[in-house]
Design goal:
This protein has about 100 residues and is mainly alpha-helical. It is built from 5 helices and no strands. The chain is about 75% helix and about 0% strand.
Length: about 100
């Protein structure tokens, strides 16, 4: 039974970290802080959370509060797309890139 619990908890932490990143990114319940959003999105994305990977791509393409970096945006979107995130696939299509 413990074998199945660890992966589920691992996935839930990534989702929670992504949600916390979203709160900081949008100022929901906390003061808007893009650097904190980046921190939490990175934690989740490095665990394979596709939504966080897509959100990082959005942060980097916008460059709102962090240096704009098209290549990092594309890289994160490709990771998210490979992990099944439809929004990331659409973002890549919009700029003429394949995943």
């Amino acid at each position: 039974m413990a074998f199945f619990r660890f992966p589920l908890i691992f996935i839930m932490y990534g989702a929670a970290q992504n949600n916390l990143g979203g709160m900081y990114n949008n100022g929901y319940g906390v003061k808007k802080d893009i650097k904190q959003a980046l921190h939490w999105y990175l934690k989740a994305a490095n665990q394979g959370n596709a939504r966080a990977q897509n959100n990082l791509g959005v942060l980097y393409i916008k460059g709102d509060g962090i240096p704009r970096d098209r290549e990092k945006a594309i890289s994160w979107w490709k990771k998210a797309a490979k992990n099944g995130n439809i929004t990331a696939r659409n973002n890549l299509k919009k700029i003429g890139k394949r995943w």
